[in-house]
Amino acid sequence: MAHAAPDVDIAAFLAQAGADYGILFGSRARGDHLVDSDVDLVVVSDAFDRVPWHERIHALQRLWRGAHTLECLPYTPAEWRERQQSSGVLQDALREGILIRPHVPNGTGMARESAP
């Protein structure tokens, strides 16, 4: 089962973005994506503190090198904790998502565990 865009290392992307962690969700996390499906990714980083929402998204999209469109939801850790229970999309990410840490010794960066 494929979990991510084959042309991009999401763990490396998260490291480059200075993220604490990411959560891959949607069709790529479920393994039922189509060839042209986008990449749905929650990105959690302290670096987003006091940065307007649209600037966060633009900064992440500038770093993205994948051939598939990135649909990112960038949050600070506090925002993530605060909003995850009030948004259906974020609840989906919690339920079906794959936690990805920027630096994982085995090189894959993917782990099936609960998001912090």
Brief characterization of the structure:
The chain is α+β, with helices and mostly antiparallel strands. Helices cover 34% and strands 19% of the residues.
- The geometry reads as globular
What count of helical segments does DSSP give? 5
Helix/strand order = HEHEHEHHEE
Q: Averaging pLDDT over every residue, what do you get? A: 84
Describe the 3D structure.
- The chain contains 5 helices and 5 strands; from the N terminus they run αβαβαβααββ.
- With 116 residues, it is α+β, with helices and mostly antiparallel strands.
- The chain has one domain: Beta Polymerase, domain 2, CATH 3.30.460.
- α3 links the parallel β2 and β3 (70-75).
- The chain starts with 9 loop residues before the first helix and ends in a 5-residue tail after the last strand.
- Mean pLDDT is 84; it is low at 1-6.
Keywords:
single chain, 116 residues
Write the layout of secondary structure elements.
Elements: H1 10-17, E1 21-25, H2 27-30, E2 39-44, H3 53-63, E3 70-75, H4 77-83, H5 88-96, E4 98-100, E5 110-111
Parallel strand pairs: 2-3
Antiparallel strand pairs: 1-2, 1-4, 4-5
